[in-house]
Every structure is written in structure tokens, then in C-alpha cells.
């Protein structure tokens, strides 16, 4: 079918830990990891089992055709499109009239104002006062008729530049125009509220369509948390759940198919991964000693023996756990379990009964633990309040994190909260210093330099946002969430809020503080000057919005790391899994995309009353971001794992808070520019309407208008679709995987005589595979690995150059009489250059390794990881 065709033998002889890695297999995995529609007749990647031959998906294809990637992908693109349209409607409804009023007014002075030009030349006091229109307008802006005050404040008054002319400052004395804008903001908030209800209904309809096309185990399963550890079994939990169901619905029929308990494998995973790290460290040290006949200088005395003793200690711990697993005596239960119901209707009925908001859950806990009263909406099991939620996809579960208790997670979150506050404080300090530096040199800058400096500061803010992104991502992993969905929601929420403060709130607050810092006796209009002067809030916000709306999407497309690693240099110490990861495309991180959309929406609404054109920037930027992310998904990124709708649902809760930000921005602008009491009253009404979201969320209102919300057209029963499910919770749980897959194969062979049985791993091997490839280990970004390879390449090239120079010098000394020197490269380099334009040489060590692997995997029909799991690997 093509030059990378894989036969059955090569798929069986795949060694994930082969050293050195096969470049051809890495290229095959690269093709299989691309996002496309599978061909009917296609070879499969021996690494991941995905189809190699795929049809390219067109960019303009319906987003519902991407449902094979999970509900989350179509919902993300639909939501981005709908928010783009809604922001454009707000710009048409509120932005254009306000922008026209701003331009038609002339409350800021022109740059050719005669008295202003005289004052710039240091002749203010000698020409003050004047009986001219130019001077009268300046007295109005400085709020004083005293020449001394005018001459001090004249450098801070607003000039009618192209940016200020479009801003709220250019109509700061026109009460009628400000009144009209306040009314438009109130109407925009109401429109936004109703639009979000419509978007909620549309999102539910899309999720239903995806559900009808693709059945998932999460459609029938609930996740229970806060269960008592090691104090219950499946039968007890099942009886208690059925009793609870018949209490609130005695006419219903409920059937629990199975309960999957998450067992505590935290110690096993941590010990195994620590052992892997130490073994790699010893391997590097021994390779260094073999090559240079000495140990590295950085190696401390007895450090090598300490590492080996630590490996022996870890082996003892792992062997003890392995024995318990093999004897089926490992029963360390966690507080997490997955309950599968027979129908979707049964699951939804239980979720509707137990779904609580944050405050409702807090009140129920208070009543139970302090007043000893139970609530009918709460499920109580062995003196605990059990928390219900719809289960994420099976592959989203971090089984190793289920062993961490609530106290540990709470401590980590509190610690991360203070770390985040510290990061915000550091960012605030940096931006404050930059603004002070900019403000002190305002008089020495011309307009072009001022624009350049402001643009640079906006770029620095964007860079700080990227640093915050990477730090928060690391903090999210340390919180040990039970599922990838919970992790993504946590990271996306923190990113949206922290970056909003860094880009929006800090821009306003810092400019006001800097102005007060410069003036010993700031008056009541200090905030007005801080907003409208050159290099003030309005100027900073304008360029910040440009950078965020246009530069960030363009930088996402022009990914420097992607273009850096188009041609890879694979080191011969990398195993096949690491090489395959390097050849994969960038990962699809939906939480990153959601946080950017949320940030763009929030800062544009915050600055919209000051700069109505920010809404046009936002809608244009989101439109560009939509097409760039769709292109990256279908042409560059690796195929993402199945994405559920949970992240979309949680992020919609954040988007629905956007009217509050618009109302706060309008009130802040009117208060700063001393608007009348009637206008401020309207702003309070707008703020009140926007805060209704906290009392009556749009998600609840949308259910009243969604006529299909209570109609279950899907008649599927779990027992009917069980054999069609590609995965399930018991088949991904490392401790229940073996028995679950055997039962699945038995049931499948009874219905399909042509069914080809897959390889079945024993429980011990499944655990080790999960250690290497599953859970949070799978989430690790390949960027660090690629950077490591690039760094190793540079070091080896430097060492090779030194060796070449030494060899050349030696040859010159010994063979100075020869007419022509021998070629410098007389041995095979230790790295391979991968390039489509360069034909690969056939290395002897590659051929020998391939022959070895053929011998090693003669019995490859059984999963065999003994080569790299042997505890006595370094004994000889």
C-alpha cells in the first residue's frame, strides 16, 4: 500500500524499549498519530494500533464530522464560532454607536493646540492666562483656572490622537453621549444573557447528536467520590445506591450493571517511575565511563552505590506489591468508584437528584456534620456524604491519583493558591517597574517611539502570560486530580482568571499608581489623567488588545518549536517510545484554547466602554483563532484522545460571568470620568442584572426552554451496546483489566466467530505498562523531550568537533610528510540525521539490533516486558 507498510510479523516484534530506536517505526507512528478519517483497508501502527492510511479532512467540513474525536472537539469549535458571532453583534449594537459618538466629540485637545505647543516649549507661565478657545478647553481638562495648576497638569491632559479619538475620554464632558452608552451597555448585558441561554441549548443539541453517533461508557456511568477507604465492597455500595434511588423515585426502575472500585496503586507507580529514573541515570554514568574511561566529575563519592542501593530498596517494595497482585490479595480501596447503570435515563435521573451547586453542597455538609440533619438530595453512605458526577471517559481517569486523599489535594490547592498569588505579585512588580520607567521618559519620547515602547510593554505582558501558563500547568499536575477532565478544568479556570488580572486589572491599577507616585499631591482627577494621558490606560489597552487578538493566534501558527524539530536528530540512547513521541505532532490542549478565548472575551469586555473597537478586535481575533486551530488540528497536531463534553460545560460557566465584567468596566469608566448620578444609577442596574447569573445561572434557565432536555430518544441499554464499546472502566483499570478483557473476549467470540482476539496482559504487566504509558505520564508534553534531544545533539556535536580537531592535530604531527591528509570522519557518528531529502545510511549497529529483536520476540504473542523490568538489570 505504501513504503511504510507493516506486516503481521513486524507488528508482533515491536519493542517499545528498543535502543537505539528505529527511525522507520517512528515515521510510521507519526503518520498514524495524525488526525484524519481512517481508510477501510489500512495497516496499523505497531505502537498505538491506529490506522496508518488516513483520508485528509477538509478545513471547511462540518464540525460534527469531527465527532469521532469526542464531543469536546465539535463543541469547542461550535462555541468559538458562536462567541465570535455574539461579540460581533455586541460591537454592532453597542460598539459602533459608541465609537461614532467618541469620534464626533472633541473633548480632548488637538495636537496643534497653540497654548499646548507654547507650554511644551516652557512658556506656559509667561503666557497664562489667555482669552482664547484653546486655553479655555485646557482649563476644562485640568479642572482649574490657576496658571500654576494648569502648567503642572498640562502634560497629562488627553490629546486627540488616533487612539484617544476613538476612546471614552474624547466625550468625557458630554453627559448625553455617556447616558446613551450606559443604556446601550444595559441592553447589551440583557442580549448577552439571552444569547448564552441560546448557546447552552445549541450545545446540548450538539452533544445529543454526538451521543447518537458514538456511544461511550460515560453515557451510562457516574463517578462517586468521598467514599470510605477500605470499608466497603461492591455489594454494600450497590444496595445502598438502589435504596437511595427508590427513595426519591419509587415508581422508577433502576438497575446497576457493575461497580468498578479504583484501587490505590500510588505507591507502585511512584516506586516504579523512580526506579526507571535511577536506572536511566546509572546507564548514562556507565556509558560515560565506558567512553571516557572515567566517571563524570559531577558524580559524588559513593553516589553510584547509593543509587544502586536505592534501586534494591525499590525492588523489594515492588516485589511485595507484585506478590499481592499475583495472589489476588491486593485490596487497597480508594475513595473513588464508578457505577454503571443499565440506561442513560436511569443515570440522568440520579444525576439530576444529586447535582448540587457549590453553596448547596456546602449547606448540606453543614447540616449533616453540625446539625446532624440529612437532606433528601444527598446520598449518605457509612456516615459520609457521597459526591456524584457524570463520569469522564475511561481513558481520562488517573488511576494512580485516586489513592490521594482529600486532605492532600486540599493542601496542594491551598499551597498552589499562594504560589499563584506570589506569581501575580511578581508580575505586578515587573509591570509596575516598566510603567514607571516609561512614565519617567514620556517627555523625551516622540510619538513613534511612544507607540513602540507601549507595544513592547504589551508584548512583555503576553510573554508573562505564557510564563504563567507553564507554571500553572505544572501546579495543576501537582494537585493530583482524579481525572484529566478535572485537571483541565482546574488549569483552564486558573489560567483565565490569573491572565485576566495580569492583562486587564493590572493595566488599570498600575497606571493609576504610577501617576500618584509621580505627583506628590494627586487630586481627585488623578485617575482621569492616568487613563487619558499619553502612555496611559487607554493607550496600553489599545496595543494590548492588538497583541492579544492578532499576535497570539499568529504565534500559535508560527510555532518555533514545531519548525525547529521538522528534521530531528535522534540520539542512540533514546528508546522507541521516546523516539515516537518526538515524531508526533504537537498535543491538542483544549484547556489552553479555552483559557485564551476566555481571556480575549473578558479583557475586550473590560475595555469596551473605554475603547469600543476592542469588540471588533476580539471578534476578528477569535475568527482567526478558530481557523488556525482547525488547521492545526487537521494538518499538524497529533490526534487527541477522546474528548468529553465536561470541559466545555465547565468553561461555559465562566463565559456566563462575562456580563459582570462589562458592567464593571462601564461603571469604572463612568466613575473615573465623573459622570452624573443618573448615569451611575443605570450602571448599578446593569451590574445588578449581570449578577443575576450568580443566583439564576443560564444553565438552569436554558433547561426550561430546552424542550428536548427530558426526552430520551436513545433506547440503548448498556447490555446491548457493551460489545460495541471500544473501552470501558474495568478494561482500563490496571488491577481489573485482565479479567475484564477476558470476559469481553468471551462474550465477543460468542457473537462474532470472525473476531480476532487481542493480546491480553496479566495484571502485573498491565500495571507496568500503565507506569510507562498511562495516567499523568501520558500527559507529559513532548516539548521537554525534544528540547533534551536538541541539547544532547549540541553537546555531542561539540564533543565530536573536539575529537576531530584532536585527531587532525595528531595526524599533522605524525604524518606531516604526506601529500594529502586522511579524511577526518573515519568512524560512524553516534547520531542519525533524519531528513526527507537525505537518504539514510545503513548502520551496522542498526542491522545487528534488528536481528537481535527478531530473536528476542519469537514468542511475541504474549506481552513480555521482562527485558526492561528485570530488577537485577545492573547486577552484572
Automatic annotation (TrEMBL):
Record carries keyword Transferase: no
InterPro entries reported in the protein's UniProt record: Csc1-like, CSC1/OSCA1-like_cyt
Top-level taxon: Eukaryota
Span of domain CSC1/OSCA1-like cytosolic: 219-401
Alphabetical UniProt keywords: Membrane, Transmembrane, Transmembrane helix
The keyword Transmembrane helix is annotated on this UniProt entry: yes
TM helices/strands, residue ranges: 83-100, 179-199, 414-437, 449-472, 541-558, 599-628, 675-695
GO-annotated cellular components: plasma membrane
GO MF term list: calcium-activated cation channel activity
Pfam families per record: PHM7_cyt
Protein name listed in UniProt: CSC1/OSCA1-like cytosolic domain-containing protein
Organism the protein comes from: Paramecium pentaurelia
Amino acid at each position: 500500500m505504501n513504503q511504510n507498510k507493516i506486516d503481521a510479523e513486524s507488528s508482533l516484534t515491536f519493542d517499545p524499549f528498543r535502543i537505539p530506536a528505529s527511525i522507520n517505526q517512528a515515521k510510521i507512528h507519526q503518520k498514524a498519530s495524525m488526525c484524519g478519517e481512517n481508510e477501510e483497508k489500512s495497516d496499523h501502527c505497531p505502537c498505538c494500533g491506529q490506522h496508518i492510511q488516513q483520508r485528509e479532512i477538509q478545513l471547511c467540513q462540518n464540525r460534527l464530522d469531527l465527532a469521532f474525536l469526542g464531543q469536546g472537539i465539535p463543541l469547542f469549535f461550535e462555541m468559538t464560532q458562536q462567541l465570535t458571532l455574539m461579540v460581533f453583534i455586541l460591537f454592532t449594537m453597542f460598539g459602533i454607536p459608541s465609537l461614532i459618538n467618541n469620534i464626533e466629540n472633541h473633548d480632548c485637545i488637538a495636537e496643534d493646540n497653540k497654548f499646548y505647543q507654547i507650554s511644551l516649549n516652557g512658556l506656559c507661565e509667561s503666557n497664562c492666562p489667555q482669552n482664547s478657545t484653546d486655553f479655555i478647553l485646557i482649563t476644562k481638562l485640568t479642572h482649574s483656572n490657576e496658571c500654576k495648576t494648569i502648567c503642572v497638569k498640562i502634560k497629562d491632559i488627553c490629546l486627540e490622537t488616533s487612539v484617544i479619538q476613538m476612546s471614552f475620554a474624547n466625550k468625557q464632558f458630554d453627559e448625553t453621549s455617556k447616558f446613551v452608552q450606559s443604556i446601550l451597555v444595559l441592553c447589551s448585558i440583557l442580549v448577552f444573557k439571552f444569547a448564552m441561554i441560546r448557546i447552552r441549548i445549541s450545545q446540548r443539541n450538539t452533544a445529543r447528536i454526538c451521543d447518537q453517533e458514538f456511544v461511550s461508557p460515560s453515557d451510562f456511568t457516574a463517578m462517586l467520590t468521598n467514599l470510605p477507604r477500605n470499608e466497603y465492597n461492591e455489594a454494600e455500595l450497590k444496595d445502598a445506591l438502589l435504596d437511595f434511588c427508590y427513595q426519591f423515585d419509587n415508581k422508577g426502575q433502576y438497575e446497576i450493571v457493575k461497580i468498578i472500585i479504583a484501587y490505590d496503586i500510588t505507591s507502585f507507580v511512584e516506586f516504579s517511575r523512580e526506579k526507571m529514573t535511577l536506572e536511566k541515570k546509572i546507564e548514562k554514568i556507565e556509558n560515560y565511563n565506558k567512553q571516557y574511561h572515567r566517571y563524570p566529575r559531577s558524580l559524588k563519592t559513593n553516589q553510584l552505590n547509593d543509587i544502586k542501593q536505592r534501586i534494591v530498596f525499590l525492588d523489594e517494595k515492588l516485589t511485595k506489591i507484585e506478590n499481592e497482585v499475583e495472589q489476588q490479595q491486593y485490596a487497597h480501596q480508594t475513595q473513588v468508584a464508578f457505577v454503571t447503570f443499565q440506561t442513560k435515563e436511569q443515570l440522568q435521573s440520579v444525576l439530576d437528584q444529586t447535582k448540587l451547586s457549590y453553596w448547596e453542597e456546602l449547606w448540606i455538609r453543614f447540616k449533616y456534620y453540625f446539625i446532624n440533619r440529612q437532606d433528601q438530595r444527598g446520598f449518605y453512605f457509612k456516615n459520609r456524604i457521597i459526591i456524584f458526577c457524570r463520569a469522564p471517559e475511561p481513558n481520562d481517569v488517573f488511576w494512580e491519583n485516586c489513592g490521594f486523599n482529600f486532605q492532600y489535594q486540599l493542601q496542594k490547592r491551598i499551597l498552589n493558591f499562594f504560589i499563584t498569588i506570589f506569581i501575580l505579585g511578581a508580575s505586578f512588580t515587573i509591570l509596575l517597574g516598566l510603567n514607571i520607567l516609561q512614565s519617567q521618559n514620556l517627555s523625551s519620547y516622540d510619538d513613534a517611539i511612544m507607540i513602540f515602547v507601549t507595544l513592547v510593554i504589551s508584548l512583555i505582558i503576553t510573554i508573562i502570560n505564557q510564563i504563567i501558563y507553564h507554571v500553572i500547568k505544572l501546579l495543576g499536575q501537582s494537585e493530583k486530580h482524579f481525572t484529566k477532565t478535572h485537571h483541565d478544568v482546574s488549569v483552564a479556570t486558573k489560567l483565565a482568571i490569573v491572565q485576566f488580572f495580569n492583562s486587564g486589572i493590572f493595566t488599570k491599577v498600575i497606571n493609576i499608581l504610577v501617576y500618584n507616585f509621580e505627583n506628590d499631591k494627586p487630586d481627585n482627577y488623578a485617575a482621569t489623567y492616568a487613563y487619558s494621558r499619553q502612555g496611559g490606560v487607554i493607550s496600553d489597552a489599545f496595543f494590548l488588545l492588538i497583541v492579544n487578538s492578532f499576535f497570539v493566534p499568529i504565534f500559535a501558527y508560527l510555532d518555533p518549536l514545531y519548525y525547529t524539530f521538522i528534521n530531528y536528530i535522534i540520539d542512540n540512547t533514546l528508546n522507541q517510545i521516546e523516539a515516537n513521541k518526538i515524531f508526533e505532532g504537537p498535543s491538542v490542549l483544549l484547556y489552553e484554547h479555552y483559557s485564551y478565548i476566555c481571556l480575549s472575551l473578558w479583557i475586550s469586555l473590560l475595555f469596551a466602554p473605554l475603547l469600543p473597537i476592542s469588540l471588533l478586535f476580539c471578534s476578528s481575533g477569535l475568527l482567526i483563532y478558530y481557523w488556525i486551530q482547525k488547521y492545526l488540528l487537521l494538518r499538524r497536531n497529533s490526534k487527541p484522545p477522546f474528548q468529553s463534553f465536561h470541559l466545555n460545560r465547565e468553561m461555559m460557566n465562566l463565559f456566563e460571568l462575562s456580563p459582570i465584567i462589562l458592567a464593571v468596566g462601564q461603571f469604572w469608566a463612568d466613575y473615573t470620568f465623573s459622570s452624573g448620578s443618573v448615569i451611575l444609577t443605570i450602571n448599578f442596574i446593569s451590574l445588578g442584572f449581570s449578577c443575576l447569573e450568580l443566583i439564576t445561572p443560564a444553565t438552569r434557565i436554558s433547561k426550561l426552554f430546552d424542550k428536548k432536555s427530558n426526552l430520551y430518544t436513545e433506547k440503548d441499554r448498556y447490555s446491548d451496546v457493551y460489545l460495541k464499546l471500544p473501552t470501558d472502566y474495568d478494561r482500563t483499570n490496571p488491577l481489573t483489566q485482565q479479567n475484564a478483557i477476558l470476559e469481553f473476549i468471551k462474550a465477543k467470540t460468542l457473537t462474532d466467530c470472525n473476531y480476532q482476539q487481542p493480546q491480553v496482559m496479566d495484571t502485573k504487566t498491565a500495571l507496568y505498562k500503565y507506569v510507562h504509558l498511562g495516567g499523568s505520564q501520558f500527559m507529559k508534553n513532548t516539548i521537554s523531550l525534544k528540547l533534551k534531544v536538541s541539547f544532547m545533539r549540541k553537546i555531542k556535536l561539540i564533543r565530536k568537533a573536539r575529537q576531530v580537531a584532536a585527531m587532525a592535530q595528531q595526524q599533522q604531527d605524525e604524518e606531516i610528510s604526506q601529500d594529502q591528509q586522511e579524511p577526518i570522519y573515519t568512524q560512524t557518528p553516534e547520531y542519525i540525521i533524519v531528513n526527507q531529502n537525505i537518504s539514510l545510511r545503513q548502520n551496522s549497529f542498526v542491522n545487528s539490533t534488528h536481528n537481535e529483536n527478531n530473536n528476542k520476540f519469537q514468542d511475541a504473542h504474549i506481552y513480555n516486558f521482562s527485558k526492561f523490568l528485570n530488577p537485577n538489570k545492573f547486577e552484572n
